Amino acid sequence: MQNFEETTTEGSASGIPRVERLRLHDTVVEHLRKLIIEGVLSPGVKLNERELCETLGISRTPLREAFKVLAAEGLIDIAPNRGATVARMTEKEIWETFELMSALEAFSGELAAQRITPVELAEIKALHYAMLACRAQNDLPGYYSRNQAIHDRINEAARNGALRQTYMSINRRLMALRFRSNFRTDKWDRAIEEHEEMIDALEKRDGKRLGEILRQHLLEKRDAVMQIHTDPLIGARND
């Protein structure tokens, strides 16, 4: 695996930071995934290889390798002789994928309530408090990363390999949409209330209740995303 060293440059016209020190392939994938999730690279946008190479400070080989990984994750589409574009889900795909994800999250919660360790529960509670601090600072990216870490830890605590693999595959396709679902302050605050309910159910080892909370949590995310999808003005931030 190739190692490299770059420094972040300021004043990039696109606002995309250069890739910094770390293993090249993994870092490029991580950077592009983050830009897609946070909407810097929005659905349907064509990915210009030359511009991305210049702004990220890399050659085309690692960029194309990263494209293949992201295409396998469903985050970008690659068409022969047309290049790569950020994937755009249809309304039907959004509805059905969130519906499936709600079931996966619910099953994760039911199993996790039975199998989670005290150490894992303490880690989830620490992430929750860090998430609250991000909300107080109106830090959506920081909030989102901790939010997703909580869901991920619950899934890990379920200790079911087949569920884990399916969960990760489906969740990658929804990450950008889950990020956007918090653009409205009321939705953001409601999500925090639901996370507090999740932790209470985990502490009480109430798998049925936790499953119901997680299922409804994802369906509410779906409804918020569908509103934004049909009327982008609804997604404006309430800063």
TrEMBL record:
InterPro entries: GntR_C (IPR011711), TF_FadR/GntR_C (IPR008920), Tscrpt_reg_HTH_GntR (IPR000524), WH-like_DNA-bd_sf (IPR036388), WH_DNA-bd_sf (IPR036390). Signal peptide: none annotated. Residues 22-89 form the HTH gntR-type domain. One of its GO terms (molecular function) is DNA-binding transcription factor activity. Pfam families: FCD, GntR. Keywords: DNA-binding, Transcription, Transcription regulation. PROSITE patterns: HTH_GNTR (PS50949). This is GntR family transcriptional regulator. It comes from Pandoraea terrae.
